[in-house]
Amino acid sequence: MNAQLTLTRLVTILRDPGAVRDLSLADWDLLVRLARVASLEGRLQAVIKAAGVLSEVPPAPRRHLDAACTLADRQHTMLRWEVARIHEALAGAGIPVLLLKGGAYVMAGLPCAPGRQFSDLDVMVPQPQLQTAEQHLFVHGWVCEGYDAYDQTYYRRWMHELPPLTHMRRKSVLDVHHTILPPTARLRPDPQKLWSAAVPLDGFPGLHVLAPTDMVLHSATHLFHDGELENGLRDLVDLDALLRHFAERDPGFWEQLTARAFEMDLARPLYYALRYGREFLATPVPDSVYVRLAPARPAAPLRAVMDALFRRGLRPHHWSCDGPLSGTARWWLYVRSHYLRMPLRLLLPHLVRKAIKERRAGKREQPEP
Fold first, then answer.
1. H/E element holding 11?
2. Alpha helices in 232-314 (DSSP H)
3. Burial annotation 259-298 (CB, 10 A radius, 16+ → b, else e)
């Protein structure tokens, strides 16, 4: 099975699990490897099981899929425990909390949650209460480790989040945000509007998840503005599931989504999310949505460049999907993400310092002759 066919088969099975009946053992061998690299192995098992065709998977690949889903289930159990501990740490102090990304999907029981794996928990607190929240989390065991004075200043002055916090005993990692994009970014979504529309989480007073439109916009922004593409296809699969779910529940969802995108200054990331969601996953986006998003569409020359980059960068980072320009495309998307987050007067010194630091770290790690 060639690379393009492997990726096509993976996407096809995620949409139509019955297609597993057509796979040979050789097909499965490469497909499981690709799904693992894309962080979609657990998701693949979940959709196959939900469709009632898990018995059609041969024993060898099934063991891998079952193991991935078992790992995801364990992570979900640990996440629920961590959410309860965060609630314990902050609710008594009157600090509201917004769960973001994977944590929100699991706690809200959304269809993209089954089988989804993740390594940390993302939350958001109001900016005026950020310092107080950090102090209360510290009392409950979350500390900031391994960041020098420059990194501390970089996060606290320029970024939209604290340096990652690690629990001293459980080693769980917590990212605490005060908005969804750095204050220096070109796009300026208003965090107060996110709080105003947030949905309370049942059973946890003071804990919330984003409203459906805002959840989609944050997911799109994280993928197409932040530039973290190691799990790009997985995040696009999340977006596809969210869009299908919310549109099915609410006939007015698409109109609300586009209006909210312009209100929050996030129409361009949404445009990219819908464009590549339709291309990679056949996300059922009405044509009228593209018409409403026309003012956010990049000019034709830029659109051609972004197509060339994202069509490579969103593929799993696996040899079967890599072409001659894949590494170059990912590098340019990495540079673009930094350029979108910070003005050049801040970005250039930061990148130079980061390159020097990584070079020195690499030399220290080299064994002595």
1. helix 3-15
2. 232-249, 253-263, 267-281, 287-292, 300-313
3. ebbeebbbbbbbbbbbbbbeebbebebeeebeebbeebee
Report the distance separating Cα 174 and Cα 240, nearest Å: 26
- Burial string for 218-243 (b: 16+ CB within 10 Å, else e) reads bbbbbbbbbbebebbbbbbbbbbbbb
- 365 confidence band (pLDDT: 50, 70, 90): very low
Q: Which pTM value belongs to this model? A: 0.91
| Mean pLDDT score of the chain | 90
Helical (H) or strand (E) element with 118: none
Nearest to 306 by CA among 184, 214, 183, 223: 223
Q: What is the 3-state secondary structure (H, E, C) of 60-85?
A: HHHHHHHHHHHHHHHHHHHHHHHHHH
Rounded Cα distance between 103 and 122, Å, is 7
Q: Under a CB-based contact definition with an 8 Å cutoff, are residues 43 and 102 in contact? A: no
Give the pLDDT confidence of 155-199 residue by residue, as tens digits: 888 788 889 999 999 999 999 999 999 988 889 999 999 999 999
Please report the DSSP string for 301-354 in residue order.
Answer: HHHHHHHHHHHHHTS-SSTTT--TTHHHHHHHHHHHHHHHHS-HHHHHHHHHHH
Under DSSP, is residue 162 helix (H, G, I), strand (E, B) or coil? coil
Identify which of 34, 28, 18 has the alpha carbon closest to the alpha carbon of residue 58.
28
What is d(CA 155, CA 120) in angstroms, rounded to the nearest whole number?
17
107 within 8 A of 209, measured Cβ to Cβ: yes
* Three-state secondary structure call for residue 209: strand
Bridge-based pairing state of the strands 173-177 and 142-143: unpaired
* pLDDT of amino acid 368: 44
pLDDT per residue over 210-260, tens digit each? 999 999 999 999 999 876 788 899 999 999 999 999 999 999 999 999 999
**142: three-class secondary structure by DSSP:** strand
In whole angstroms, what is the distance from residue 102 CA to residue 117 CA?
Answer: 8
